[in-house]
Amino acid sequence: MPSFKEKVLEVVKKIPKGKVLSYKEVAKKAGNEKAFRAVGSILNKNLDPNIPCHRVIRSDGKVGGYNRGIKLKLQLLKQEGVKVKK
DNA sequence: CGTATGACGTGCA
DNA sequence: GTGCACGCCATAC
Question: Which CATH code, of 1.10.10.10, 3.10.350.10, 3.40.640.10, 3.40.50.150, is assigned to A4-80?
Answer without folding.
Answer: 1.10.10.10
